[in-house]
Each structure stands twice: as structure tokens, then as C-alpha cells.
């Protein structure tokens, strides 16, 4: 009987696939909720969505969502934005307020703080490209003393909801501000919309997701490399720094 393959052995070929993109990246873009933190760790997303839907219904807007989509605040925002309802800007403000409250109790993704500092210390420009409010991202980074690592390059949701990922707008804004070559840049994200935005921006993509449905969704969307721990990335970044 063949010996069982360990998690580390399974991860090794995957991370080796991404090694060139990781160590050769001259610019790194992070999605926020997921790769950097669990934004809704305590301030739960489904509770936020429920409050937003209840407010919309009081304003006589019926939300045409069912199932899991009703638990997703961004799905609620998208559907109202697509309707061109005059309520959309008030709804976006309400969601921003909810995300700001959530940023106070957000839980850091394991190993990410050290990874951010390692890349930053090596002079690699970093940016956040997210569908969340940039105010929430900045609030979280300030609490973790990571703001300087990004030099305030935080590109998040605007009032133009047509520019939410998978539209590459926030990635393109980051790349432009950093004068970065997309072909030498790397995006770390955890959703198919992150993957599609990276493709459209011409940026290499590294999927991050715990084992489960998010991993399956990324692979079905065509993600070639999906890792389950940022420790794998950290090892390559720190090793590259020692060899420099």
C-alpha cells in the first residue's frame, strides 16, 4: 500500500507552480476580505445583509434574491445598483458604515501580517484592490500598524458600482498609481471575481482559500494555483530575501 500523502507534500507542487510569480513580483495586489483578514468574523455578513434588506423593504424596494445570495451584503448592493434605484447611494453608505464597524473585530488571516512586512521590507510595492470600502480597509490596516507597508495604496469600492470586481477598475487604479507593469505583478484573491479581474488586468493570480467550497469555486473558475495557507508564500518571500 502506498504511503498517505501529507498536506505539506500535497501543497509543495502547488506552491512551486507559483514560485516564479511570488519571488519575481515587482508589485503585489491583495484583495482585502479573505487574504488580509476575516472582515466579518464577528460582525457577521448575513446579519448585515439582513439589516440592509429590511431597510430596503421599508423603502418599498423588494430585493429579488434567494438562498445564499440574501446572506451576501455585496450581492444586495449589486442588485440595487443594477436596478438604478435612487436608493443605491444611501445603501452603499449604510454598507460602508457596517464594514467600518466590522473592521474593529476583523480577524487577521494567519501569516499575512508577517508576509506584508516581508514584502514591504524588500521594497516590493503593495496595494489593496477590493470591493469593500477603502475606509474599512484603511481602518483595519491602521489597527494592525500596516498602513505604511501599503503607503496608503488602497483602492476599494466607489459610488460607481459598475466598477466592482470582476471589473478590473480597482486593480487598474492600483497599477497606474504604482506605475507597475501588469505582466510582473501578482494578485492574491479568494473569489472567482478576483480571478476574472486579474485576468482582465493582465495580472498573475494566486488563489487563497481554506479547503472547501471556496477552493472548489476558484478551481471551477479556472484558477491554476490555489493555496490554503499564506505561510507557503511567506517561506518563498523570506527565502528569496535571504538569497538576494
TrEMBL record:
InterPro entries in UniProt: HAD-like_hydrolase_sf, HAD-like_sf, HAD-SF_hydro_IA, HAD_sf
One BP term from GO: DNA repair
Keyword Hydrolase: yes
Keyword terms, alphabetized: Hydrolase
CC annotations in GO: cytosol
Highest taxon in the source lineage: Bacteria
One Gene Ontology molecular-function label: phosphoglycolate phosphatase activity
Protein name: Hydrolase
Originating species: Streptomyces finlayi
Amino acid at each position: 500500500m502506498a504511503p498517505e500523502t501529507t498536506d505539506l507534500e500535497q501543497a509543495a507542487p502547488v506552491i512551486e507552480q507559483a514560485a516564479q510569480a511570488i519571488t519575481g513580483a515587482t508589485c503585489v495586489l491583495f484583495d482585502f476580505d479573505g487574504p488580509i483578514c476575516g472582515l466579518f468574523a464577528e460582525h457577521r455578513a448575513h446579519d448585515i445583509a439582513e439589516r440592509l434588506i429590511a431597510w430596503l423593504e421599508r423603502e418599498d424596494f423588494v430585493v429579488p434574491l434567494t438562498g445564499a445570495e440574501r446572506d451576501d451584503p455585496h450581492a444586495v448592493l449589486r442588485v440595487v445598483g443594477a436596478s438604478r434605484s435612487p436608493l443605491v447611494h444611501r445603501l452603499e453608505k449604510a454598507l460602508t458604515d457596517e464594514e467600518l464597524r466590522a473592521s474593529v473585530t476583523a480577524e487577521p488571516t494567519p501569516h499575512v501580517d508577517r508576509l506584508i512586512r516581508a514584502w514591504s521590507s524588500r521594497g516590493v510595492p503593495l496595494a489593496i484592490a477590493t470591493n469593500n470600502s477603502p475606509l474599512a480597509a484603511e481602518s483595519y490596516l491602521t489597527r494592525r500598524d500596516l498602513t505604511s507597508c501599503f503607503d496608503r495604496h488602497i483602492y476599494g469600492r466607489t459610488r460607481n458600482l459598475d466598477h466592482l470586481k470582476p471589473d478590473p477598475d480597482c486593480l487598474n487604479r492600483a497599477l497606474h498609481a504604482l506605475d507597475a507593469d501588469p505582466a510582473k505583478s501578482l494578485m492574491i484573491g479568494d473569489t472567482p471575481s478576483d480571478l476574472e479581474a486579474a485576468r482582465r488586468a493582465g495580472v498573475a493570480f494566486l488563489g487563497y482559500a481554506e479547503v472547501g467550497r471556496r477552493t472548489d469555486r476558484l478551481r471551477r473558475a479556472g484558477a491554476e494555483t490555489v493555496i490554503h495557507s499564506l505561510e507557503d508564500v511567506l517561506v518563498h518571500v523570506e527565502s528569496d530575501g535571504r538569497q538576494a
